[in-house]
Design brief:
Layout lengths: L5 H16 L4 H4 L8 H12 L1 H13 L1 E2 L12 E9 L2 E9 L17 E3 L18
Antiparallel strand pairs: 1-2, 2-3, 3-4
């Protein structure tokens, strides 16, 4: 198991995705060997290098997989689910805000700060579905 926090794992994955999307980012990564620097490096990439790619990566990462976990936060104006993603073999979950109506901006919430490491049990379920059609 890794010694990284849930937040560090998220930043590490987003940085890795950024390198895959734009190889010119790789030169900025070489100076960052310490996990504590992941958040600062991500902020630097967003503000100085390629904010469009970073915004897309963060948006996609935020989506994750919906879980059956209970959210750690609450909101009067937004719906909250818990989403998760596997990073380096470790499952990380966070509160996922959505909704908010016409002027809602759920992506503005700091979803990374409430991230936590969780366990996930995967099981294969066989399901029988019946599809009917009218004959006449």
């Amino acid at each position: 198991m890794s010694n990284l926090t849930a937040q560090e794992l998220i930043y590490k994955q987003m940085i890795s995705d950024a390198i895959d999307s734009d190889t010119s980012i790789k030169e900025y990564i070489s100076q960052c060997d310490e996990p504590e620097q992941y958040e600062d490096l991500w902020g630097h990439l967003k503000s100085n290098i390629n904010s469009d790619i970073c915004d897309c990566i963060e948006y996609e990462m935020r989506e994750g997989l919906e879980t059956n976990l209970t959210s750690k936060t609450s909101s009067r104006h937004y719906e909250i689910d818990v989403h998760a993603m596997q990073v380096d073999g470790i499952w990380v979950a966070w509160d996922y805000y959505y909704g908010g109506g016409k002027h809602g901006e759920p992506e503005a919430f700091d979803w990374i700060s409430n991230a936590r490491i969780v366990e996930c049990e995967e099981k294969v379920v066989t399901k029988v579905e019946y599809n009917f059609k009218e004959l006449t």
